[in-house]
# Entry
Amino acid sequence: MKNKFVILITASPQNSQSHLTAIKYVNALIESGQSISCIFFYQDAVSVANEFNQPPSDEPQLLNAWSELATTSQIELMTCIAASFRRGVIDREEAKNRGLDSSNLSKHFNIVGLGQLSAALSEQDSKLVHFK
Amino acid sequence: MNTSRPNQTNQIINVVISQTALTSASFKESIDLALVCAAFDQTVNIIFIDNGVYNIVQNQSYQELNDKNHLDILKGLEFYDIDNIYAEIESLDRRNITSENIINLCQTLTSVEIKKLYFQANHVVNI
# Structure
């Protein structure tokens, strides 16, 4: 039976190399023809979707790396709505609702509810791989 | 957003809490995940290990901190049909917390029994 991989990333992009490992892992899954049902960013990992983060140019550009992966693979990158708002990662609609001057969510990410992760986990052949 | 998917089945999900509520947002976000999974008709076990067992000590006061009392959050879990709340005996012992000092809704299990829960579960999440 073929697994449907659920990729959960909770590590901070600033304090951990887990995002680099996760990107390598997802690319390896794609290359070997595996099925990925969900890439979900939770806890401090949501910060990677903040396009105001500007790491030094000689360091890994995680947002670019994830964006490229999303574009080439057509897999949706989901960030948890509550975790994102708690950490100041705001999409255009929410910025407008709250009267904020600007938003910072990268266009390659979608803000969704935790229910999306739960639904992916509830699939029969789902296999959770967690990067923390 | 449509969250219904084909092949959705009842899965057993263990949410493991190993940090205190005051250390990070991990406690709150673990409970959020447990609540959503329960709302999706999944069987949820909440398991406190390591420093996570400090969360279930009775009579903790947050008034001085002006923070939300996390014990109230735990007491509300039964309304979401989450009745399986466990604490590891070895983690309690190492911190000199007796079973009389923990909240009633939590059952104590040995690490071997908790490992069995891990094997029985479809997913184990320790965030």
Chain B has one domain: 12-125. Chain B has four helices and five strands. The first helix of chain B runs from residue 26 to 39.
